[in-house]
């Protein structure tokens, strides 16, 4: 878990002189996404605190990747797993979760991640004794996994040279934990949010924060600025990363790189920008955007 490679992106676009762009290849985690970090830490914390005992089912709302991570870890440790997610979560993700033996409850795609979040809370309120509610949107262990992992790794892998960190937000765990760690190491590091340009977007795994329920772990004081990305820009960059860099990733990774390049073009020589490649493109092969 963790210690993923930091890849320099130097074929995707001509960057301003002296500006370098790196991406953390989170698809190298064991279940294939950045969410392995939070899920592992949350389950380990549940076991250590005694809240997750052998008679409990791990339950949470997920846009897919955290669910895959819970399902993998649940199978390995012998805990049943129940996952609530919008029905339009990609077929590949649902089939991976089912392969690990998890139970899936689908919620209305029109309500996006909020629908899954509200439905899981209702179920936990009805039968609290049955579940270990991982609650990735409000559990401080989620950003802490990135504080101890992703943020520290970026600091060390750049030899302390990182000047900017830029990433999108789902639960916000990656952005909050990583930014908090980087600013602790060097308070002048600038941390930038990538946000879908519309509430109705196709950047799976990310939230349009202004129009959805804000996660309890979100810390807006870490947001130095925001770069908006449209679904089309994210699709286009996802295709370019595959064809021009040989990096096969999902749409939120395309959004992150698209926004990171926009940021790079505003920066002076000496800037070192780091973003996140959240998951692998193999989770989205049935999506039509690949065929444009
Ligand atoms: C594909 C993808 N990208 C980005 C994110 C956002 O990560 P975080 O929840 O740490 O904000 C997620 C979260 O599930 C995701 O699945």
Please tag this protein with its features:
292 residues, alpha/beta, Rossmann fold, 2 domains, 6-stranded mixed β-sheet, 4-stranded parallel β-sheet, globular, binds pyridoxal-5'-phosphate
Radius of gyration, taken over Cα atoms and rounded to an integer in Å: 18 Å
Q: How is the quaternary structure best described?
A: single chain
What is the spatial order of strands in the main beta sheet?
1-2-10-7-8-9
The CATH topology of the largest domain, please? Rossmann fold
Query: In CATH terms, what is the architecture of the largest domain?
Result: 3-Layer(aba) Sandwich
Concise summary:
Helices cover 38% and strands 17% of the residues.
Structure, explained:
The radius of gyration is 18 Å and the shape is globular. It starts with 5 loop residues before the first strand and ends in a 15-residue tail after the last strand. The chain has 2 domains: 6-34 and 143-291, Rossmann fold (3-Layer(aba) Sandwich); 35-133, Rossmann fold, CATH 3.40.50. It is an alpha/beta fold and 292 residues long. The strands form 2 sheets. It has a 6-stranded mixed beta sheet with strand order 1-2-10-7-8-9. The protein has helices spanning 35-49, 65-77, 91-99, 112-126, 141-157, 173-185, 231-245, 251-264; strands spanning 6-8, 20-25, 57-61, 81-86, 103-107, 131-133, 164-168, 190-196, 225-229, 272-277. It is 38% helix and 17% strand. It is built from 8 helices and 10 strands. Helix 1 (35-49) crosses helix 2 (65-77) and helix 5 crosses helix 6 (173-185). The model has no long low-confidence stretch (mean pLDDT 96). The longest helix has 17 residues, at 141-157. Bound molecules: pyridoxal-5'-phosphate (PLP).
């Amino acid at each position: 878990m963790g210690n993923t490679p930091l890849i320099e992106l130097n074929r995707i676009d001509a960057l301003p002189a002296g500006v370098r762009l790196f991406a953390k290849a989170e698809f190298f985690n064991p279940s294939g996404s950045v969410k392995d970090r939070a899920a592992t830490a949350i389950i380990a914390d549940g076991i250590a605190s005694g809240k997750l005992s052998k008679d409990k089912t791990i339950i949470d709302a997920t846009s897919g990747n955290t669910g895959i991570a819970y399902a993998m870890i649940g199978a390995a440790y012998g805990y049943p797993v129940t996952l609530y997610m919008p029905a339009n979560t990609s077929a590949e993700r649902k089939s991976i979760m089912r392969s690990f033996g998890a139970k899936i409850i689908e919620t209305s795609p029109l309500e996006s991640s909020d629908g899954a979040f509200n439905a899981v809370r209702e179920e936990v309120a009805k039968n609290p004794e049955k579940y270990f509610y991982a609650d990735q949107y409000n559990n401080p262990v989620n950003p802490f996994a990135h504080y101890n992992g992703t943020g520290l790794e970026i600091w060390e892998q750049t030899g302390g040279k990182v000047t900017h960190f830029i990433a999108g937000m789902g639960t916000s765990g990656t952005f909050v934990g990583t930014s908090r760690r980087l600013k602790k190491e060097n308070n002048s590091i600038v941390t930038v949010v990538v946000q879908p340009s519309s509430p109705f977007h196709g950047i799976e795994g990310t939230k349009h924060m202004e129009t959805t329920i804000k996660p309890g772990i979100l810390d807006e004081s870490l947001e130095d600025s925001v770069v908006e990305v449209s679904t089309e820009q994210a699709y286009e960059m996802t295709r370019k990363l595959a064809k021009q860099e040989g990096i096969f990733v999902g749409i939120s990774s395309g959004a992150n790189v698209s926004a990171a390049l926009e940021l790079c073009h505003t920066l002076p020589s000496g800037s070192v920008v780091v973003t996140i490649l959240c998951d692998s493109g193999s989770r989205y092969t049935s999506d039509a955007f690949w065929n444009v």
